[in-house]
Amino acid sequence: MIxxxxxxxxxxxxxxxxxTVALALAAGILLYTLILAVIGVNPLLTFSxxxxxxxxxxxxxxxxxxxxxxxxxxxxxxGSLWNIGAEGQFYMGAVPVIYLTTIVFxxxxxxxxxxxxxxxxxxxxxxxxxxxxxxxxxxxxxAYAGVDEVxxxxxxxxxxxxxxxxxxxxxxxxxxxxxxxxxxLIPEAxxxxxxxxxxxxxxxxxxxxxxxxxxxxxxxxxxxxLAMVVTAVWWFFNKTSLGLxxxxxxxxxxxLVTAGWDVRKVTIATFAISGGIVGLMSALYLLxxxxxxxxxxxxxTAGYGYLAILVAWLSLLDIALVPVSAYIISSLTNAGISQxxxxxxxxxxxxxxxAGAELSFRWIMIGSILxxxxxxxxxxxxxxxxxxx
Length: 389
Known about the structure:
- The chain is mainly alpha-helical.
- It is built from 15 helices and two strands.
- It has a two-stranded antiparallel sheet with strand order 1-2.
- Helix 3 packs across helix 12 (304-314).
- The mean pLDDT is 88.
């Protein structure tokens, strides 16, 4: 008789964590390429699109968003609190922004600088509070009811979808939308994007660098917010007692109890901080890029809340590696979108009976990476022994 026993490794594999990430990315991309190759997509085309995405300035927007959200989830994940609800927290953070800018202080003309600053600041502050509150609800359910946070945060995502959809179809319905199911456009006085034009030089290398500079200028407020989030998260974990408690909660929760700390309060506070950071990015995304909400709300973003989970995991919960992980995921996500619009891919998918499902295949790449990461992470932490009896 043969029996399999799974044992946790007493000594971690040398460079096991970094090797796990590298192999997960390589194996995930390879698996994705093989899947498309079976359908009829040339592997060389897939590799060329993925390679080009890593040097494209088009990743800047997604990189900033995913980096901020990656740090938001890192705060919770450090305490072994699996906040899978960034999607819902993102959309709940958008509620006060739309309410203030398109209803309470809506204008079709110009406003004073003081009003503009106050409305923008108020929108951001309320978005942080709404995102934090939505996260705290999940934390309270876990802390006081003992319900696992993964299904709770997932359910709250859909509750947020439906709540915001109801608002869009009801009190948030725009007056200048010509029958479309959406809110009014956020007035220019409250928008945070920076308009800039850089003349091309004709040199592809210089123009490529200028395109990066242009994107960074356009999203300059986001870059500033990102720097503040990085600093705040570092300070939180290295200089505050709550940050220490979160780290202890993730490694030895029993110690918190014996030390007399209230685990329930730590849990709720951690979820609130995580959700608050998500709310911050929600406000910036709406004020600086999206500018309105449309029905159905779940189709408004690229699934940033779920992609951020992969960002946090691939960073190995290392503050310094979150931007690296975010850039990789942003590049791969944009590669999936680029590939879905390529004529050769459309034709191959149509011949295979997948016409119209092009955009769904970018999730296959993300799913392939996540699957291989999970398997490899398990093998790096555990060993499987075969015992003959």
